[in-house]
Specification:
mainly alpha; 81% helix; globular
């Protein structure tokens, strides 16, 4: 079983392994993110509403970063975009530590995420250039494993740093990891440029509008489901660390270890789960519904169980829910994309999670400040039920589409034979 697991990672060129290492460093290096809400509460004495607004700007920056990444890739290519993103992030982490007022921190966080989130779209695009077509799915799995490994180490290291030397050096550690990543990137990976550009007119692509992806009604419903599921998941990085501290009085190290559990589970189970469901050809929307249901159950547990062990159970349920939801949501979005519009479909899909960042923290903080933590967990569970409803609606739409397509194929064959 162990040999079969590791066989998934054989046969990659050096560039792919370096990109995976960079992704691990980048993800582990953003160790400040899980503790940002606690930092604002404990060190800066911000109100719940102010913390929510800062996290709103965090999400807005993510949207801007995703959009900027596409623009920069067109202007200077994915290689320079990745290097610029890492270098700018290292500078901004140091700047963020100096910002102590609400207004300045909102602006600083907006800038940070705008530049930091330029990295991931460019990195995903780079996989197409540094590996063969038949290995791209496995290369993506390798990168996802690196992300999960980063989730394992980042929060635990962050918790240790805070307990021993304070929040200040957490920002410096993040800056150092970004600088290390850009040095490794420039040293070990060479830039690849396309020898020519393909004009859309040559391959017969015609665009109705820049908003053509939104004409796809099923895709729009899928965006809503993805955003709602993202809102549920991102609570573990915003409101849940505060809950650890204020309700159970847990130190930062324990919060880091609980979040590291998320990374451990994903590292060892995500790839086998995805491989199993894909080989069994299970309907993607059914798997997504199962994932959302597990996340809902995680929040229901928080409502009714008030002993600290429930935090472990909650992380387990939400993590498995995320593993059932996010990879297959990504796959479904990819299958919806049309020729020539793949980049737009995936960019818009990625933005659905950026908007989830915006709504998740602000909604959670406002509910907590007015009605308490229990009300927030109930609200999250209800949001999950709404997501399940829309996913069920999406499955009906997909079945109708499939039936309609089959009918059209039969009609075309019938008329074609009739003409003959």
């Amino acid at each position: 079983m162990i040999k079969k697991y590791f066989s998934n990672f054989k046969g990659f060129p050096t560039a792919i392994w370096v990109l995976a290492i960079l992704t691990f460093i980048n993800r582990a290096g953003t160790m400040v993110v899980p503790f940002l809400s606690k930092y604002m509460k404990d060190e800066l004495d911000f109100s719940y509403s102010q913390i929510g607004w800062v996290m709103v700007f965090f999400g807005i920056g993510s949207v801007i970063g995703t959009w900027l990444s596409g623009k920069f890739i067109k202007w200077i290519g994915f290689y320079k975009t990745m290097a610029f993103s890492l270098f700018a992030s290292s500078i901004l982490f140091i700047v963020i530590e100096q910002l102590k007022t609400f207004e300045l921190l909102c602006f600083g966080v907006l800038l940070l995420t705008s530049f930091a989130d330029m990295f991931r779209p460019a990195m995903l695009l780079s996989l197409n250039s540094y590996t063969k077509k038949e290995n791209r799915t496995r290369a993506l799995s390798l990168v996802r494993s690196a992300i999960n490994l980063g989730f394992l180490f980042g929060p635990a290291i962050g918790g240790l740093l805070i307990m021993n030397i304070g929040y200040k050096y957490l920002f410096y550690a993040d800056a150092a990891t970004c600088l290390l990543a850009v040095l490794i990137f420039l040293t070990f990976i060479r830039e690849i440029k396309l020898p020519f550009k393909i004009k859309e007119s040559i391959i017969g692509l015609k665009k109705k509008s820049k908003f053509e992806v939104f004409y796809d009604k099923a895709f729009v419903v899928h965006l809503l489901v993805s955003m709602l599921s993202g809102i549920l998941f991102f609570q573990i990085f915003t409101t849940l660390p505060l809950y650890h501290k204020e309700f159970f009085h847990l130190p930062e190290l324990y919060t880091g270890l609980l979040l590291a559990l998320n990374g451990i589970i994903m590292l060892f189970f995500e790839l086998p789960i995805v491989t199993f469901f894909e080989t069994q050809k299970v309907n993607k929307l059914k798997i997504i519904s199962l994932g959302i249901a597990l996340m809902v159950l995680g929040y229901v547990l928080l409502v009714f169980i008030k002993i600290d062990y429930v935090l472990i159970l909650m992380i387990v349920f939400v993590t498995f829910g995320a593993m059932f939801t996010f990879p297959f949501a990504n796959s479904f979005a990819s299958t919806r994309s049309r020729i020539g519009l793949e980049a737009k479909y995936m960019t818009v899909f990625t933005m659905s999670y950026s908007f989830a960042h915006i709504f998740s923290a602000k909604m959670g903080m406002e509910i907590i400040s007015k009605f308490g933590y229990n009300a927030n967990w109930i609200a999250m569970a209800l949001l999950g039920v709404v997501a399940l409803f829309f996913n069920f609606l999406l499955s009906l739409m997909s079945k109708r589409e499939k039936t309609s397509t089959n009918d059209k194929i039969l009609d075309s064959l019938f008329f074609e034979n009739k003409d003959k």
